[in-house]
Write a structure and sequence with these properties.
The structure is a homodimer of 131-residue chains. By secondary structure, the first copy, chain A, is of the alpha+beta class. Chain A has six helices and four strands. Chain A has a three-stranded antiparallel sheet. In chain A, α2 crosses α4. Chain A is elongated and about 45 Å long. Chains A and B meet through β1, α1, α2, α5 and α6 of A and β1, α1, α2, α5 and α6 of B. β1 of chain A pairs antiparallel with β1 of chain B, so a sheet runs across the interface.
């Protein structure tokens, strides 16, 4: 176990019943989140994001990514484009090759929002005072 | 800022170059993650999970869920079924109504895995010693 600081989603302070429950996400936030989850709703794209993140400097050339996922470069580039459009990766052309870099704040933002959908084990417990 | 304890994903200890980068997820884990993300790749399902989590006791009757998302009960039940199949909600029939309860460990598990894909801002920083 490691102690870290996380900016937690603000807890509802409108006098609601459940101290540990965050307010539901609104329609616009749900739409944004769903769009990001759609970009990640493919095993190859999860692998690609994971491989780029694990790479030195959290950056990888497209030429480093074809072999680990066992796919041709156009297919890999297509998946990478979807991750770039979702804001999870950044792309930079350097000479012949495109390089992809993880955008940790974007990934962490989605993880934080997801964490806010599972308040019990991650937010400090507040013992219910009622029945 | 709130200090909480999180079981962090183990960091690679194979003598690799990047102390803060976790190893890439394997194919099976990528497939599981993608399946969960697919369940969340719809704004209505994100809203439903969020509303159930925010509800008293992190549980809601399907009869409480139709109005907030503005959809008919069969459509809402269809979306809820997908969330149940993904392990993010549990369903219990009580008399006339089905009740849905959030599975915080499942949601938190996905959030943790996602966090492991964005190591820089969330894991304790280790200054690189090499070039």
């Amino acid at each position: 176990m490691t102690t870290i600081d996380l900016p937690l989603t603000p807890v509802a302070s409108d006098g609601g019943c459940c101290g540990t429950a965050p307010p539901p996400v609104d329609v616009a936030a749900a739409r944004d989140l769903a769009r990001t989850f759609k970009a990640l709703a493919d095993p190859t794209r999860v692998q690609l994001l994971s491989i780029v993140t694990a790479h030195e400097g959290h950056e990888a050339c497209v030429c480093d990514l074809t072999e680990p996922v066992g796919l041709a470069q156009p297919t890999v580039s297509h998946h990478l484009k979807i991750l770039v459009e979702a804001g999870l990766l950044e792309r930079e052309q350097r000479g012949r090759w495109a390089y992809y870099r993880a955008v940790p704040d974007a990934v962490a933002g989605v993880a934080d929002l997801l964490t806010s959908l599972a308040p019990s084990p991650l937010t400090p417990a507040t013992a219910p005072t009622g029945a």
